Structure formats: structure tokens, C-alpha cells
């Protein structure tokens, strides 16, 4: 979860609990290892996408950290491979077509001389599988 998203929900996210980098399996593995070395390590990890989450799962196995026994893990975007591993990855997804329309709408409104809405809400879907 990003700090800005946490702020929208009225909470904060300490910098030490965020890992920056490309959205890849490798970054997921490195980030998960860093989190697991903390004195007070998190018991839940929300990843930027499913590739990062799969990398975190790989590293959890290397470190002997139980998913979901010791750490709950959630990905984002419901990539095709998310349901293939063991345990199958719990993830959050958004309807791509609706998100695309919401992204294009402000451009269309500006082209038509109108002031676009500043907030757009899109319904997310939580897909519970085996990592929570």
C-alpha cells in the first residue's frame, strides 16, 4: 500500500514498511527479505502487483516463513499466474474496462469544454485464495 493510499483511508504507513522498486518478482523477493529481517516484522504484506507477491512468496519459502501461517500475503491485479501456485495467491482486482473509461473520461470532458470530476470511484474485487 502506498503512503498516499493509506492517507486516503485516514492512516499512515511508516517508510520502513514500504519497499520501492520496479514491479517485478525480484523486487518482491528482496523487499520481503528486508521486511522479514525487521525486529517487529509485519504479519501482513500487500504487494503492488501479483508479480511482486509471487517474488515475496518465493523468498518466504527460501526463508522458511509460512504463507499464510506466519505472514498473510495479498497481490494486486489478478494476473493469470496468481491462481497457479501453491498456495494460490489472494489478490485484489479492478474491472479493467471500467478503469479505462474512468481514466479517459476527464480527457473527454476537457475536450468538450467541461471541468472534469476530481474523484472517480471504481469497485475493487477481493479474490480470496490461499495466502490469507
Strand residue percentage: 5-15%
Q: Give average pLDDT, whole number.
A: 88
Estimate nothing, just give the exact number of structural domains. Answer: 1
Q: What is the 3D form?
A: elongated
Strand elements, count: 4
Specify Rg, calculated over alpha carbons: 17 Å
Structural class based on helices, strands and sheet pairing: alpha/beta
Structural description of this entry:
With 132 residues, the chain is an alpha/beta fold. It has one domain: 3-Layer(aba) Sandwich (Rossmann fold), CATH 3.40.50. The protein contains four helices and four strands. The chain has helices at 3-8, 25-36, 50-63, 96-111, and strands at residues 44-46, 72-76, 90-93, 125-127. It has a four-stranded mixed beta sheet, covered by helices on one side. Helix 3 links the parallel strand 1 (44-46) and strand 2 (72-76). Helix 2 crosses helix 3. The longest helix is centred in the last third of the chain and has 16 residues, at 96-111. 22% of the residues are buried.
Name the features:
4 strands, alpha/beta, 11% strand, Rossmann fold
Short structural description:
This protein is α/β, with parallel strands linked by helices. It has helices spanning 3-8, 25-36, 50-63, 96-111, and strands spanning 44-46, 72-76, 90-93, 125-127. Strands 1-2-3-4 form a 4-stranded mixed beta sheet, with helices on one face.
Amino acid at each position: 500500500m502506498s503512503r498516499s493510499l493509506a492517507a486516503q483511508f485516514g492512516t499512515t504507513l511508516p517508510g520502513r514498511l514500504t519497499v520501492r522498486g520496479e514491479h517485478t518478482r525480484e523486487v518482491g523477493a528482496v523487499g520481503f527479505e528486508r521486511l522479514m529481517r525487521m525486529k517487529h516484522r509485519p504479519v501482513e504484506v500487500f504487494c503492488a502487483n501479483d508479480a511482486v507477491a509471487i517474488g515475496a512468496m518465493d523468498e518466504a519459502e527460501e526463508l522458511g516463513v509460512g504463507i499464510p501461517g506466519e505472514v498473510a500475503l495479498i497481490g494486486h491485479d489478478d494476473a493469470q499466474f496468481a491462481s497457479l501456485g501453491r498456495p494460490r495467491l489472494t489478490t485484489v482486482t479492478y474491472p479493467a474496462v471500467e478503469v479505462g473509461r474512468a481514466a479517459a473520461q476527464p480527457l473527454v470532458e476537457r475536450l468538450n469544454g467541461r471541468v472534469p470530476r476530481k474523484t472517480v470511484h471504481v469497485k475493487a474485487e477481493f479474490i480470496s485464495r490461499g495466502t490469507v
